[in-house]
Amino acid sequence: MSEGSRQFWKRSAKLPGSIQPVYGAQHPPLDSHRNKSSLYDRSRAPPFHPKSRKASSFHEFARDTSDAWNIEDDEGEEVLHPPFYQGLNSRVAEVTAVKVIESHFKLQEENRCQATVIKSASEDQLHRVTSDDLLLRKSLQKQKSFPLRPIIPLVARISDQNASGAPPMTVREKARLERFRQLLSSCNTDLEELRKCSWPGIPREVRPTTWRLLSGYLPANMERRMPTLQRKREEYFGFIEQYYDSRNEEHHQDTYRQIHIDIPRTNPLIPLFQQPLVQEIFERILFIWAIRHPASGYVQGINDLVTPFFVVFLTEHVDEDVENFDVAILSEDSLRNIEADSFWSMSKLLDGIQDNYTFAQPGIQKKVKALEELVSRIDDPVHCHFKKYEVEYLQFAFRWMNNLLMRELPLRCTIRLWDTYQAEPEGFSHFHLYVCAAFLIKWRKEILEEEDFQGLLMLLQNLPTIHWGNEEIGLLLAEAYRLKYMFADAPNHYRR
Known about the structure:
InterPro entries: Rab-GAP-TBC_dom, Rab-GAP_TBC_sf. The chain is an all-alpha fold. It has 21 helices and no strands.
């Protein structure tokens, strides 16, 4: 490949690999309390007139917001950030710096007043104030040099609790945990009863084994579980020995290259997933899956689907919060078991939704169309509002179906959501549609308040779920179940 071709591949927005940042639940805006008008000012976009600019509206919007990060392929090159990203950083840094300086000056004035009354202040104290002033200036300089990021636990405390804190286990929760342990320790686990217990959420202590059973990775018979685990783990690493070296062969280079580009984009704000050892594990899992499924191969978005399994199986070996956990301290056997179990569990999930990732992704196209028909029946004002401002469902719901709402929700919420998906028949392929409908209607007030195309797309791609926990997911699932009960067995009710 010539140098000119390589540069075109890297720079062209129409080709994979040159993708701009996305802001969502896992990758939130730099300032969660940003002023909406300032966003539009920064983008310098002229007012939108739907009738006169219909053809180009979404393409113009897409230049400012996209679905991943523009990461250079060659080592040593800097990451390119769009002007909007840089402008927002400098604006936030300037406003914050002014506030800090004003606050510091007020403190200095108070110190001077106190000095006139209390004249026994030592030279050592005055020297300390001067040192603090120097430290403040240095911190402000650093603040202008680096982007601001919210300090929010995205994975930490992923057990059964809300994001706001970890309440002590109640009597009811202890009883539920004991019930799970009884089911899992029986000679032949009653999978139907296990699904009923799992629907409202699975305790962290028993989640790894429960997920293995509900996904079909482990048999219900207790005596067969360990032999099955050993056999499947050996089989996976047999695939590694057989296929992984072929990543350097010409006919597999494009697949491996795309995987290698996408891995750093997976949960970029969570330190766990930025560790080289973890990224190597993800690369092996995704490449082996792509080689063994040539009908679809690797598609962007599949990389996100590994993360919940990896975190859940990691908690089997870690008692502390995993967000900042260094996996290098785990034994090699533990890491191999986590990797193999994540591969097989992800494979079981994708077996049920593989038409989402085959050529032209027909599964996603059908689900988005079904979502449009369903919303038109359950909330006609929202549906008409989208039509009025020419917002297509595919423009925001494609990502909801492709990534199973993982870009819209914090990872702790995704894990709780998948408890129910594992328990629900066809949870990932069928029930997810009703979850998406309930999720959309949850924001009907905010949607109806937006009165232009760009405002609607900005809202739908940056929904404020960063502080969601189990309570919000429980309400979402209850509404989704209600919709399924009303419409799933009567599809003509939501067809026009």
